[in-house]
């Protein structure tokens, strides 16, 4: 596995993949570049000592070599997933699920819980009770001897966050693993393991942003005596390319936003592109979804603008006309609105129809009716709050919760 130290990297050749190619074509249809060009990448990424193709080949060979070693294969797959580079090896990972099934019945806590987690993550039907009953005593409590198995407890803790209902055994697993990991931190060696346990307790893997956890996991792997430099190098390359791509997407949205001019027309409107982009970045991960992140951010931005208009700009009459115009959904509906609000309406109308047309082009159906119904529900919710404000009402927490529940429920139904 020896490879050059993974300190400086070349960009990943993502534009050669089918997903990236489709995304690039979509970007060109929209008149933009959504995947960094090779030239642009080289100006941002240091060139030199890590060859991505060699790294991919090296990891593929490792997966082939470990096909007959269940634990090593599962640990390798887990590391690939935690470093957010597993998408390069989907076929190899899928073919290894048989090894997971074998380890599921292991009497080793680490092996059995890791196998369960990987299988449940891959949507296989596995029962936590079947896995965990081997590690409990006659009273149904976890055996105390397991409290000394740090890696097993870490894996049990990860597994416990995959509760898909009222799975009591996973609730017990979380309590047991959290208690004994927390008490063991002060005595763990090496220091890198203690830090990793602390981070796992504070920010559980399945409750955290994957890219955020990937950096922690990479630091942990780099602290181990036996390092896989090919895997480390590929992870660093992927991270740097993703970082560059996110920066380019933010700049594209910012250019679009400045051209829109709403912050010039409506003084209270704030330029908060990174804030609007955050949800799209976390929900839509991967280079092949670049264009979708941009479009999602564009549709999120007017929600904040409308919120400011309802709170700080419009009179009750103007807000009522604004809501009626949204429900009418045509350009003439905006004629009776004040200038700034009219511009906001036209922006919503244009963005929504553009996205609906894009969906029809790519998927064969036009969701514009669902989208405009979702806007109407959101505006009705804003109108409720506007009436509270206009009449100096102080709604209770229950009132706010009821209004928010109505909006979320009906927007969801409007989209199906």
UniProtKB/TrEMBL annotation:
<protein>
    <submittedName>
        <fullName>(3S,6E)-nerolidol synthase 1-like isoform X2</fullName>
    </submittedName>
</protein>
<dbReference type="InterPro" id="IPR050148">
    <property type="entry name" value="Terpene_synthase-like"/>
</dbReference>
<keyword id="KW-0456">Lyase</keyword>
<feature type="domain" description="Terpene synthase metal-binding">
    <location>
        <begin position="259"/>
        <end position="405"/>
    </location>
</feature>
<keyword id="KW-0479">Metal-binding</keyword>
<keyword id="KW-0460">Magnesium</keyword>
<dbReference type="Pfam" id="PF03936">
    <property type="entry name" value="Terpene_synth_C"/>
</dbReference>
<dbReference type="Pfam" id="PF01397">
    <property type="entry name" value="Terpene_synth"/>
</dbReference>
<dbReference type="InterPro" id="IPR005630">
    <property type="entry name" value="Terpene_synthase_metal-bd"/>
</dbReference>
<dbReference type="InterPro" id="IPR008930">
    <property type="entry name" value="Terpenoid_cyclase/PrenylTrfase"/>
</dbReference>
<feature type="domain" description="Terpene synthase N-terminal">
    <location>
        <begin position="59"/>
        <end position="188"/>
    </location>
</feature>
<feature type="region of interest" description="Disordered">
    <location>
        <begin position="1"/>
        <end position="37"/>
    </location>
</feature>
<dbReference type="GO" id="GO:0000287">
    <property type="term" value="F:magnesium ion binding"/>
</dbReference>
<dbReference type="InterPro" id="IPR001906">
    <property type="entry name" value="Terpene_synth_N"/>
</dbReference>
<dbReference type="GO" id="GO:0010333">
    <property type="term" value="F:terpene synthase activity"/>
</dbReference>
<dbReference type="InterPro" id="IPR036965">
    <property type="entry name" value="Terpene_synth_N_sf"/>
</dbReference>
<dbReference type="GO" id="GO:0016114">
    <property type="term" value="P:terpenoid biosynthetic process"/>
</dbReference>
<dbReference type="InterPro" id="IPR008949">
    <property type="entry name" value="Isoprenoid_synthase_dom_sf"/>
</dbReference>
